[in-house]
Amino acid sequence: MNEKELIEKAIEASKKAYAPYSKFCVGAALELEDGSVIPGCNVENASFGLTNCAERTALFAAIAQGQKNFKKLAVYVDRLDFTPPCGACRQVINELAPNAEILLVNSKKEVKRTDIKELLPLSFGSADLKGEK
Ligand code: THU
After folding, report:
1. How far is Cα 19 from Cα 26, in angstroms, rounded to an integer?
2. CATH code: domain of residue 93
3. How far apart are the C-alpha atoms of 41 and 14, rounded to whole Å?
4. Do the Cβ atoms of 11 and 110 come closer than 8 Å?
5. Residues in a beta bridge with 73
6. Mutate to test the pocket of ligand 1, among 16, 23, 42 (most ligand atoms within 8 A of CB)
7. What is the 53 CA–ligand 1 centroid distance (Å)?
8. In the chain, how many domains are there?
9. Domain of 52, in residue numbers
10. Which of 31, 72, 87, 112 is 20 to 30 A removed from 95 (C-alpha atoms)?
11. Nearest residue CA, atom 5 of ligand 1?
12. What pLDDT, in 10s, does the model give residues 74-119?
């Protein structure tokens, strides 16, 4: 899987978004260590707070498939601005994919690279529960 293919998967996933309220369609593509890819899209609800973001959809689907080694997470929105993961997704990425490279992709297929250390400094995680920090 090269990066262009990963980005195409994120674009494809954005077309599956269920976003009748915001009309803000987000696609995610999570690449596993073996090169396979798990897609995710945002799934909204009339009870707005139940909305699930694209990133979490992909990560939860991956966990449900028994996967745990994640290499890259591409996030696409058909906008010129790059869309960074929301706070809830950052916390979940920190838990499940702390080593993944995060690729924010805009409508021109330009890529902004980041990772969870940059997006969520001074994070709270399992080490805090164990008093290991
Ligand atoms: N959304 C995502 O899916 N991922 C993000 O990183 C930011 C926000 C979704 C949630 C909601 O369905 C819509 O975008 C507008 O907030």
Report:
1. 9
2. 3.40.140.10
3. 6
4. no
5. 30, 102
6. 42
7. 5
8. 1
9. 3-129
10. 112
11. 85
12. 999 999 999 999 999 999 999 999 999 999 999 999 999 999 999 9
Residue whose entry in the numeric block shows the structure tokens 């080490």? 127
Distance, in Å, from the CA atom of 108 to the CA atom of 24, rounded to the nearest integer, reads 17
Picking from 120, 116, 82, the residue whose alpha carbon sits closest to that of residue 101 is: 116
The pick from 75, 82, 86, 102 for probing ligand 1's pocket by mutation, whose C-beta has the most ligand atoms within 8 angstroms, reads 86
For residue 61, the one-letter residue type is A
Exactly one of 8, 44, 55, 101 is catalytic; name it: 55
| Residue with token string 């694209």 | 54
* Residues 6+ positions from 95 with CB-CB distance below 8 Å: 125, 126
> Quick check: is 55 catalytic?
yes
* pTM for the predicted model, two decimal places: 0.97
Rounded distance between C-alpha atoms, residue 67 and residue 61, angstroms: 9
Confidence band of 131 (pLDDT split at 50, 70, 90): confident
Residue located via tokens 């080593």:
99
